[in-house]
């Protein structure tokens, strides 16, 4: 059987990783505890269930051909104990050593996954109170994007969302079989040539858009310019989280227009403005910092863990605007322009360029590409939609879910957001050395929502 090679984008995420800049996604789930042994039971269930999920038993290894490529293969020595970990405080039981799990998640997010094993981990942590515990999931970006990681994690819970491929959509024509026999290759040449010309044109268009986006002036150091943290080649990470009422977000959307996502991005812009002002940092001049907004290109019914299907939009955050409504209008206008152009065009579509690079180029150019993130964007703001289900693990109900995004080299801050059970959860990840006051940014998000609600009420 021929090996299953990593797609070009998956390979890119695998190659750009370094010890100081691990490329894994995360999700911090806070669950109810029905007894002192709830965390230990959850860890045992995770270990039992992961052994039965093929997508979590595969590791990545280099291959000889094509040169520079990598492929998936089953781990012959798979051991759940190397992937599921129970923290001492959680093992002690509910009410013993309860801590803020977000504080514990920071150092864990800083630690790279073992590249010789299936690239994922689950850490069962003490919860914020005697009636709770938490689970931090880590999935390498080469394994899955946000939606793919969610699908993989769903297989570990008591109830699995309907991620399996659904029935065919009516009206879709059946694929036409490829011609075979003598002369078939020649007959396909015009189509192949047209495809190559289209790919080259797309690559040139994206490259030109990136050049036009330019490196902005006046972006505060809090948003960029993070150097590797202290220690033996390891970076440092801090994690913060904030839960907001979705009803209040919808109140703003109904009063001011746009989408829920527009409002969530505008809240980030306002919170950054507040936070920088409280720090005494100068506000950005002109068009503002560039936010990379990932866009999923995953088709409905795609198999769980089917790698990355991503593009993105590049959006200027209007931090110079002092009025919250005008900030929202600016975000909405920018997102509308991005949507009109589509996710396959524009400076935010840089992920698509990975498809035009030979595997050897990913291997040799990975470190160089990793250093280019700061030239492409200033902050990552990503949304991971969750299904409208209540997740449980061994009878313990998931109460909160904070998505966590990776930090590329030169980036100080990444913001991810998900909506779960009528609550918007912001997950904030920062370079702990560059951003020592991440909790203040979470507070600024709360203050921004409160001010916006007063504005539209």
TrEMBL record:
Coiled coil among keywords: no
EC number: 2.3.1.20
The keyword Metal-binding is annotated on this UniProt entry: no
Domain of life assignment: Bacteria
O-acyltransferase WSD1 C-terminal domain mapped to chain residues: 307-450
Pathway per the UniProt entry: Lipid metabolism; Glycerolipid metabolism; triacylglycerol biosynthesis
Domain O-acyltransferase WSD1-like N-terminal span(s) in chain numbering: 6-263
Catalysed reaction, written as an equation: an acyl-CoA + a 1,2-diacyl-sn-glycerol = a triacyl-sn-glycerol + CoA
Broad enzyme group: transferase
Pfam families registered for this protein in UniProt: WS_DGAT_C (PF06974), WS_DGAT_cat (PF03007)
SUPFAM superfamilies from the UniProt entry: CoA-dependent acyltransferases
Record key words, sorted: Acyltransferase, Glycerol metabolism, Lipid biosynthesis, Lipid metabolism, Transferase
Similarity annotation: Belongs to the long-chain O-acyltransferase family.
NCBIfam families assigned: acyl_WS_DGAT
Protein known as: Diacylglycerol O-acyltransferase
Species the sequence originates in: Streptomyces goshikiensis
